[in-house]
Design goal:
Blueprint: H1 2-17, E1 20-22, H2 40-44, E2 50-52, E3 56-58, H3 68-72, E4 78-80, H4 85-96, E5 101-105, H5 106-111, E6 124-128, H6 136-146, E7 150-152, H7 162-189, E8 198-200, E9 212-214, H8 234-246, E10 251-253, E11 262-264, H9 274-278, E12 284-288, E13 292-297, H10 307-311, E14 317-319, E15 322-324, E16 333-342, E17 349-353, H11 362-379
Parallel strand pairs: 5-6, 5-7
Antiparallel strand pairs: 1-4, 2-3, 8-9, 10-15, 11-14, 12-13, 13-16, 16-17
Length: about 375
């Protein structure tokens, strides 16, 4: 009883009282002693404060509350509760209609405090621990909402968070690739402009990314449409909504985008469903009905974590290196399907690949094969 009580207290501490909430169930590496599938949070933690074994633990004495872990985790194990993305986005959206908005980190804010060379000339200033805490979803949402009136302060060369600066650069590059694909699709489809063409500015860290002219609506996609049944994290759901609204184009190497693409070898797949059980975002799902069952896949929800590949005992799954942005807004697709039949030997229901002409279940087929083998050996 006592252990249960203290476990409840620990969960409350993690989910309600800390600046960063931890969803233990989303981590794909808990309990893995040898082969790790994802080490993004540990590799990018600027304070080396995260440990993963039987659970995800943060050393709060070392943690600087920068939020980098929340940005880089593909399955969103971590969520910023103080100065959450929604709070910052809401403030940016409200203020950018009136005046320019500058988002900067604590380090830059303190360094230039009271000095004339401060990068902000006028307008609203929003200070966060580190700009690396913002994911691609947030960067796209804020840029599409605020346009020219939003600027992210550049990192300084003497910043001690070198890992954070690397994350900022990667997030900026991904965001700009997506924005450029949106722009290409808008021009090709000759979409009417809802607002006058203006620059969409993203100035991020060491990347030196230049402002680019974007032909995009000013609508801010809603990131709150997330189904608990699908297990799609909020940031991922928001990113999918943005992609659906913009109809992007282009193929990219998977490593340059936060997406994945799973294919199935239908000769090997037995539709056991272990891959769907292992998928942390619900990108894979088994659909069962009276006629049979299917393995369905939601392209935009896949983060390429390889959890399904590790769970598949048949080796039937493959993670493609190339991704097609145009497919990110596609609905569920069927990767594999099997139909139900009644075994002519034992009368039990079993499943076979669509179009296959099998009358005997695998158990009976194996048993008859053994009988035939013994018969042949006896005859010899």
């Amino acid at each position: 009883m006592g252990s249960i009580f203290f476990d409840v207290l620990r969960r409350l501490s993690e989910s309600q009282l800390s600046e960063i909430a931890i969803d233990q169930e989303r981590c794909i590496d808990i309990g893995r002693k040898e082969k790790r599938l994802c080490t993004a949070c540990q590799e990018n933690c600027v304070a080396d404060a995260i440990k993963i074994w039987e659970r995800v633990d943060i050393d709060w004495n070392r943690c600087v509350r920068c939020g980098v872990c929340a940005a880089v985790c593909p399955t969103e194990v971590f969520t910023m509760q103080v100065l959450s993305d929604n709070m910052v986005l809401k403030e940016i959206t409200a203020q950018s209609e009136k005046e320019p908005v500058l988002v900067e980190c604590n380090f830059v804010n303190k360094r230039f405090e009271g000095k004339e060379k401060h990068p902000q000339a006028k307008g609203k200033k929003i200070v966060v621990p580190c700009l690396a805490r913002f994911s691609e979803t947030f960067l796209l949402q804020s840029s599409l909402a605020a346009g020219n009136n939003l600027e992210f302060a550049k990192c300084t060369s003497d910043c001690s968070f070198k890992t954070g600066r690397k994350v900022i650069e990667e997030m900026g590059q991904r965001s700009n690739l997506l924005l450029e694909s949106f722009q290409a699709a808008s021009k090709k489809n000759n979409k009417p402009y809802e607002k006058k063409i203006s620059e969409r500015r993203i100035l991020l860290g060491e990347a030196g990314l230049q402002a680019i002219n974007m032909v995009l609506p000013r609508n801010t996609p809603n990131a709150k449409q997330s189904s608990s049944k699908d297990k799609i994290p909020l940031h991922r759901a928001g990113l999918i909504e943005i992609v659906k609204a913009q109809t992007p184009e282009g193929q990219f190497i998977r490593g340059k985008m936060p997406f994945g693409n799973i294919t199935v070898d239908t000769e090997k797949c037995r539709l056991h469903g272990r891959c769907a059980e292992a998928c942390p975002t619900g990108a894979l799902r088994i659909v069962d009905n009276n006629q049979g069952k299917e393995l369905v896949f939601l392209y935009g929800a896949c983060v390429g974590c390889r959890a399904c590949l590790e769970a598949c005992s048949e080796g039937a799954l493959k993670l493609e290196e190339n991704i097609d942005l145009a497919r990110l807004a596609a609905p569920w697709v069927t990767l594999m399907s099997r139909q139900y039949q009644l075994c002519t030997s034992c009368g039990r229901q079993f499943s076979v690949r669509m179009g296959a002409n099998s009358q005997v279940c695998p158990s009976c087929e194996g048993r008859w094969a053994e009988i035939e083998k013994y018969a042949n050996e006896a005859g010899a």
